[in-house]
Design goal:
Number of helices of chain B: 6
Helix content of chain A: 40-55%
Radius of gyration of chain B: 27 Å
Order of helices and strands of chain B: HHHHHH
Number of helices of chain A: 11
Number of domains of chain A: 2
CATH topology of the largest domain in chain A: Rossmann fold
CATH class of the largest domain in chain A: Alpha Beta
Helix content of chain B: over 70%
Strand content of chain B: under 5%
Largest interface: A-B, 51 and 46 residues
Number of strands of chain B: 0
Shape of chain B: extended
Strand content of chain A: 5-15%
Distance between the termini of chain A: 31 Å
Distance between the termini of chain B: 9 Å
Oligomer: heterodimer
Largest sheet of chain B: none
Largest sheet of chain A: 6 strands, parallel
Chain lengths: 269, 214
């Protein structure tokens, strides 16, 4: 393999360019963020099985930089939970997550979601220690460090990830301390390799961690004014792909040009 | 699009500010560094102000000042915490041994939670999952065995500098290639993630700002 790389250094770059060019074929289906519906089966099943008036603890800690990727899925999932008559208790363990939780709650309040459906537990400082406090509050029925959490059984833990304190931290700190509470997560695709083992081992009951999974979930959910069923428009996807291809292509061509110039410089006169 | 803006005049103003900030940041890629530098200062200032507000309104006042004011003797742990904060603030004028106490407690507690959680929540369950075992379906059994083999090869790949024969050397080489493939896959997800963010910004500019998209 090393010989092949040495003899044809352009091959891999050409393959990369070809793959990117294939993504630009003028078929709108290729630009649709959608996948097999079964990618979201786990999440759909769990949401459907929730009894009415369930209390769902939403650990809302996405990252400002990657929230755009999961935002349509998060909004559709929250809307779906409200459609299933669940109550959402928002808690954030990071300042970024708190800012985004405030924005999303404000959006739902503007959309006239009943105030008793949205519970604000607030920002709990302490990173991993905060999750332990939450676990104690839920397991032992109250903790002075966590105010605002209703004193009643929680049906589901939904973790919106992306920040340092995300689904992995919840699995490590929360799951061993609270028995019988399922954890599900929505996270950006960059966290998929980290979270897949937890899904396989059953520590996470369901995970939506790629645009494909998110699109599959949005297709399975009932349309709602609160959700964001459509996802990004094809024109924006096309322009984004063009920009990405241009940047990558420019970098590759510059690199190849530099390699050719240096190889000619080494040739004997 | 982002859905965070309404139809009021103040929302329209917010859209314009957000659009201009987006253009300034994208302009940084094309070499416009001065405006990009100002946008970084703006972000740092806003973040600092927000963090101060969050600390005061959601941590210091409700979790420290109010409980102490309501029942000064009933929360000894808060008094101890306050004392540690005072020691941290006075570190430049205190002996190093005394000044190191709050930091040591913070680091020790953080390490204890992180390490304990990693062992109980990650290491042990993942080790158990990496053991090959017969599954109800043949494909699942093969996948389980494959996962165990990959785990073993990658672990062997970390054998640096220890004496090894041809077989172990080949296994270590294979383990390193598998690890590289894993890192390549992760970088692919990173690229995908950033591409989606770029698309979202373009959708915001074309839809929320210019109104070209429904």
């Amino acid at each position: 393999m090393n010989d092949l790389v040495r003899r044809a250094p352009w091959l891999w770059r050409a393959l990369l360019l070809l793959a990117l060019a294939l993504a630009l074929l003028p078929t709108t289906d290729l630009l649709r963020l959608a996948g097999s519906l079964d990618a979201a089966d786990g999440m759909v099943e769990i949401v459907d099985d929730l009894p009415p008036d369930s209390l769902v603890l939403v650990g809302f800690d996405p990252d400002l930089g990657t929230y755009a990727e999961i935002r349509p899925t998060v909004r559709t999932l929250l809307a779906d939970l409200l459609e299933h008559d669940a109550r959402l208790a928002f808690v954030s363990l990071t300042p970024e997550g708190r800012a985004l939780a405030i924005a999303e709650r404000a959006r739902m309040v503007v959309a006239e979601v009943a105030p008793d459906r949205l519970i604000d537990v607030g920002f709990v400082p302490g990173a991993e220690a905060a999750i332990v406090s939450l676990a104690r509050a839920i397991d032992a029925g109250g903790d002075r460090l966590v105010a605002g959490l209703p004193d009643e059984p929680i049906a589901l833990g939904l973790i919106i990830g992306g920040n340092d304190i995300g689904p992995r931290s919840w699995v490590e700190q929360f799951e061993p301390r609270v028995e019988g509470l399922d954890l599900v997560a929505v996270a950006p695709s960059v966290l998929l390799p980290e979270l897949t083992p937890y899904l396989e081992s059953g520590q996470l009951r369901a995970l939506l961690a790629t645009p494909r999974d998110g699109a599959a979930y949005r297709e399975s959910a009932a349309p709602s004014a609160l959700g964001e069923i459509d996802g990004p428009p094809p024109l924006a996807v096309l322009l984004g792909m063009l920009v990405a291809v241009a940047v990558l292509g420019f970098a590759v061509i510059t690199h190849v040009g530099g390699a050719l110039r240096s190889s000619r410089g080494r040739e004997p006169a | 699009m982002s859905g965070l803006f309404g139809a009021e005049p103040i929302d329209q103003l917010a859209i314009w500010v957000a659009a201009l900030a987006t253009l300034v940041v994208l302009g940084g890629m094309l070499g416009e560094r001065r405006l990009f530098g100002w946008s970084q200062h703006l972000l740092a200032g806003l973040a600092t102000g927000y963090l101060a507000l969050l600390a005061i309104t959601e941590v210091i006042v409700p979790r420290l000042v109010e409980p102490l004011a309501a029942d000064p003797g009933g929360r000894p742990e808060l008094v101890v915490g306050l004392g540690l904060v005072a020691v941290t603030a006075a570190t430049p004028w205190l002996p190093r041994v005394v000044g190191a106490v709050p930091l040591s407690i913070a680091i020790g507690a953080l390490a204890a939670f992180a390490l304990g959680g990693a062992i109980v929540g990650t290491l042990l369950p993942q080790l158990a999952a990496a053991v090959a075992r017969p599954e109800p379906e043949l494909a699942a059994t093969v996948a389980s065995a494959g996962a165990a083999v990959v785990t073993g090869l990658v672990v062997i790949g970390f054998l640096h500098g220890s004496p090894r024969g041809r077989i172990v050397g080949a296994a270590a080489s294979g383990g390193r290639w598998l690890m590289l493939a894993g890192i390549g896959g992760w970088l692919g997800y990173l690229l995908l993630s950033r591409l989606v963010i770029l698309i979202d910004r373009l959708a915001f500019l074309l839809g929320d700002w210019l109104g070209l998209l429904s």
